[in-house]
Amino acid sequence: MKDTIKNKRDIRRLTEQMLLVVVVEDKQLLATFASRCCLREFPSYYRYYLACRPRYTGSSNLYVATSSRVSLLTLSSVETRWVERRSHGRDDLSPPSSLNGYSADSCDAKKKKGPTPRQQEELCLVCGDRASGYHYNALTCEGCKGFFRRSITKNAVYQCKYGNNCEIDMYMRRKCQECRLKKCLAVGMRPECVVPENQCVIKRKEKKAQKVGEKDKPNSTTMNGSPGNLNIDQMGVKIEPTETECLTMPGSTIGLSSSWPNDVKAPSPEQEELISSLVFFQGEFEHPNEEEIKKITYHPTESEDPSDLRFRHITEITILTVQLIVEFAKRLTGFDKLLREDQIALLKACSSEVMMLRMARKYDVETDSIVFANNQPYTRESYSLAGMGETVEDLLRFCRHMYNMKVNNAEYALLTAIVIFSDRPNLLEAWKVEQIQEVYLNALKAYVDNRRRPNSTMIFAKLLSVLTELRTLGNQNSEMCFSLKLKNKKLPPFLAEIWDVMP
């Protein structure tokens, strides 16, 4: 969306709602522009997405600016583009509200009276993924934390194959370890903060000694004779505690910064089998059985008001949905490779996000509602009546967005697996989760390239942006749970435990 800028009032109006993407051809002009506004360079995956459009072809630098101090003279000297902050279902891909750990609205912000606004989600300074906290003196994600620790403890020496100047982001971080390590050091990660390997071994032995009495094994069932009887090792992927450039399988590559040939290969036989397995189990664990549905009561008791009844309906159907998500996750290829602690951590963290994906699959565009297995349509009025109206607008907007993208069953299943194997806090073997997720990312890339031509590049980027939206919806769900607690609407124990809502 191009916008005409006539005066400073227009600039202030637009900067409140949008981010300004600036295409700068001249390095001298860039310096002038940078001195007049708060300038942040786009992560490469956004740059690639915008570069897909005809007007952005070439080697121009793309930057995001947020400042009302930009002079009109400067703006008239560069090509500009306003991109909406939130674009649910629109063509434009919204950039995040903070880039590389810096809030886009933080520049030249004056302190105002009143309550402190909630901070935006912080991003890893190394790769731009969601940060989990300060690790080794820098704000990073779990993946970069683990990579840095392994690199230092093993005294690893890497070699860049791409010219020693790679731009590290969420998808390039796996391809070049040398530049990733350089970026870790550049953002302030300190090797002296890493605990020596011998101390780690001692700690691991102590933890193992505490679990000697435990006899329960990870409950990750594999069904013989079903499409799920697929071993991840058979796919040519060997999971090791070392950084690999990329877990590639024949006919697939991952990374938005690469250029793909016009003659796109079909998914490999292993990928086709993996996708078939996902679609099969997605169907198997999509609907509760009739007996479980009959247990949901539809008539209020004498002392129960309509609000409590609707709240009870939604929580009961949510419990059934989450239980199905857990069963689906157990059947995923690679899930049984993980420690029990990591399995539990992933299931607890992903359940609300996967639930949003399932809701999008059950979305009815004609009634603008979500139709669950009990064939009851849940509209915005239903959620509002249950005291859950705070998040329903964003949820329905997300459902419409997925509907407009025409996401099919295979793409939903792959996205679900990618969400389940996402980087989460407190994982003991984050590197293993990351490598398993790479298999599903590669499969999605190969599938989209083969099915969505000629716009596969743009659609793949949009599908990946869904992961960010799901994180936001998941966070909103957590906030809503605490809000319900304040309204004396108590969640059932199962949901309270899996979503960490303290009693």
Describe the main β-sheet briefly: 4 strands, antiparallel
Order of helices and strands: HEHEHEHEEEEEHHHHHHHEEEHHHHHH
The helix tally amounts to 17
Distance between the termini: 47 Å
Q: State the share of residues found in helices, binned by percent.
A: 40-55%
What is the residue-mean pLDDT, rounded to a whole number? 67
Q: Residue ranges: pLDDT <50 for 5 or more in a row?
A: 1-19, 35-120, 217-229, 236-262
Whole-number count of domains: 3
The CATH architecture designation of the largest domain is: Orthogonal Bundle
Short description:
The chain is an alpha+beta fold and 503 residues long. It is 46% helix and 8% strand.
Outline the structure in words.
This protein has three domains: 8-103, no CATH class; 133-207, 2-Layer Sandwich (Erythroid Transcription Factor GATA-1, Chain A), CATH 3.30.50; 232-498, Orthogonal Bundle (Retinoid X Receptor). A hairpin with a 2-residue loop joins strand 5 (98-99) and strand 6 (102-103). With 503 residues, it is an alpha+beta fold. The relative contact order is 0.09. The protein is globular and about 65 Å long. A four-stranded antiparallel sheet has the order 2-3-1-4. A three-stranded antiparallel sheet has the order 9-10-11. Helix 8 crosses helix 15 (430-451) and helix 13 (389-404) runs antiparallel to helix 16. Helix content is 46%, strand content 8%.
List keywords for this structure.
503 residues; alpha+beta; Retinoid X Receptor; 4-stranded antiparallel sheet; 3-stranded antiparallel sheet; 17 helices
